[in-house]
Write the structure tokens for this entry.
Amino acid sequence: MSEHLIAGTTELLDGAERAFAGAPGAEALAEARRRLHEPLRVAIAGKVKAGKSTLLNALVGERLAPTDTGECTKIVTWYRDGHTYQVILHPRDGSAPVQVRFEREDGAVEVDLGGRDPVSVDHLDITWPSSNLRKITLIDTPGVDTLSEGVAEKAYEFLDPKDTETPADAVLYLMKHIHASDMRLLEAFHDEAVSQPNPVNAIAVLSRADEIGGGRVDSMASARKIAARLARDSRLRRLVQVVIPVAGLLAESAETLTEREFKLLTELATMSRSELETYLLSADRFIQGTPGMPLTSLEREELLGRLGIYGIRQSLALVRSKTVHSSVELSRELVSRSGLTDLQTILTTLFVDRAAVLKCRSALLAVERLCEQNPDHPGAAGLRLQIEQIMAMAHPFNELATLAAIRTGRIKAREQDLLDLERTLGANGTTPWQRLGLKQDTPADQIRTAAYESIARWQRLAENPLSPHELSQAARIGIRSLEELAVSLG
């Protein structure tokens, strides 16, 4: 299906380039073609100090974005996989991009703007060899509530640009609770049109989740309950697919944990649990300690800066119980407990597995926008018809449109029916077992049986004369998804 979709979209772009050759705005088609064959573009957005750069580093598995106490991300910064290490600066005035100098300080990439005001820079393009960037290009955006003049608007302009489509295929939005500025930015990324981003293109991340419980060992359990409550909020539900809690600092540090840090933690674990717990009540107490306490104050400050109170507590518990015996084992455990593994799974099932669909929609939007800008052009009507045909024939588009309709409240039904229909349409992942709500190791014959049972269920609902028209149509989309699933199982 993905190959046919990309082929059809490429044919559409071919026709649009012939039809609009030399027309104003036609250069956007070349960008749409490049984008179609590039990795999926995922933007990371949120307020200042929400932990955007920290989460980006965790996803890359390497500390690239600076994460100090200031407003680090004043410029939209793209991180792409490549064969060479380089930074390209794109001026805001549209002049030619220039390669600029950079250096790494404590692992982070520090870019020399050459005396330029950050407001005068449209974006930075950082190329960095990374296996984690081969399928996803990550885009770090400025904080939406920064006090720096001209910087706050960049996040809004990036996700909701004027006279063009957003450069991002999907967005990770970091938040602590539902705030007006959070809703405003998510609404900027959301649009009712089928070819625009919609709720299935957005994931909310409950950032710095370990701080919610004050760094206690059960902090992430508390954060998961809050995330579940936020996910049920009707305002947020229509704008995001899911809410995932992540302890960003722990995730970043766990991915880059050193053997030296593991040894420091092992030495700290020799102190009695009851005595050490009194020092873990606050950051100041832990750093100040006592003269007889293991490690120097500088070493304790280093661990605190890397892992936070929650990460230190988790590490000590794992070391004391002999669950881990090396930095590699501890790293693996901390990554899982930080929530990063859950986020990576969601990214794969909701974004990466749908990459072709999301990128094709972006290309269709570019053609659609060009037709709107040139309504009297003789080729516009034919291209619009071709867009409609691609959308009608490509079932994944219908799935995404139906998911958006459910999330925005346009389809009414019992809550459980809607949840089951969302899952059938791939809201929890696109594999057969995920669509059917089964376990991953379920045998193929049982998956096939469950698929036919589910088809029968949705057929009854679709054919029920009391079912609203919108619900019947949505059920038929679900039936089509299940029929394709059954065929794929043989």
